[in-house]
Amino acid sequence: MCDDKEVMRRAAEQHGIVARQEALDAGLTHSALQRRRVSGILVPRHPRVLRAPGAPVTWRSELLAAVLWAGESAMASHRAAGALWRLDGIEEGAIDVTVPRRQAPQRSGIRVHRAVQLEPRHGKRVDGIPVAAVNLTLVQLASILRPDVLATALDSALVQGLTRADRVLDCVDGLGRRGRRGVGTLVELLGERMDGQRPHASRFERRLAAMLERVGLPRATRQYEIRLDGRVARPDLAYPDLMIAIEADSYRWHAGRSSWESDLARRTELGTAGWLVLHFSWRKLVAEPEYVVKQVVAARQLRTLAA
């Protein structure tokens, strides 16, 4: 037997909103649910979505109602998600919902976006509302925001510790959206922010090595040991047979003058030992991968001809 208190408890925890299926799961029969709708105990908001009487109508309640109406796997997205994540420059008010492509709901006042693929990792909950994960949210926002507003939202996410630039980039790559509107701008912004610190060696190595292998180049050796007159150098990637070393670089990498001078000396010693050292920043690697690959290909051709 249904306890109406259970239905109202669920509604109270969900901005005054309860899905029809939740009411049925709480024990209401279809006929009992209809009686409560007629009597005003539960107020229809959308098909399959009800509101508790007297519950305040807020942006969050309207957004949750839209998500529940949109169906299984639906989530708040785009501007709505940006506002839920409290990203600077994104105001509350938009009702944006993303659904799997197979779903095709339409309703006035709700912007419905369709995604090719939605996986559990793409969704989170904020304030009890299913919402696109912050990385996916930033990718979505890239398609609709001006570059300056997108930069503000991205920096807000980074400053709040909601994500890291490399994780957003991984999301871009995972969704295969490099050619989509606005993603190029997002990638450029990520590259600038990743350029502020030396990338973790293994991440730089994996990324660049995969890029080079995709264009048919031989697999580069990671952290190849080169002995130099009393010291050891380990470039991020190397082609030992051609004496080509590849390293991640950053204009803010060095902690002090001594580190800077030591690195200059190491580079000089590599050069005098016959090594060709290629330096690439995160920004180049992220935003201009074709340039990076072109330079490595050219270096290999030059060394091959000279051999």
Assign a percent range to the helix content. Answer: 40-55%
By DSSP (H or I, 4+ residues per run), the number of helices equals: 13
* Largest sheet data: 4 strands, mixed
The count of β-strands is 14
Globular, elongated, flat, extended or rod-shaped: what is the shape? elongated
Q: For the largest beta sheet, what order do the strands appear in spatially? A: 9-12-13-14
Distance between the termini: 85 Å
The low-pLDDT segments are 251-256
Coarse structural class: alpha+beta
Mean pLDDT, nearest integer?
84
How would you sum up this structure, described in words?
With 307 residues, the chain is of the alpha+beta class. Helix content is 47%, strand content 17%. The chain contains 13 helices and 14 strands. It has helices spanning 4-13, 20-25, 30-39, 59-70, 78-84, 134-142, 147-159, 165-175, 183-194, 201-214, 257-272, 282-287, 289-306; strands spanning 17-19, 43-46, 49-51, 75-76, 96-100, 111-115, 123-126, 129-132, 221-222, 226-228, 231-233, 237-239, 244-249, 276-281. A four-stranded mixed sheet has the order 9-12-13-14, with helices on both faces. The protein has a three-stranded antiparallel sheet with strand order 1-3-2, sandwiched between helices. A hairpin with a 2-residue loop joins strand 2 (43-46) and strand 3. The chain is elongated and about 90 Å long. The termini are far apart.
The gist of it:
With 307 residues, this protein is an alpha+beta fold. The chain is 47% helix and 17% strand. The protein is elongated.
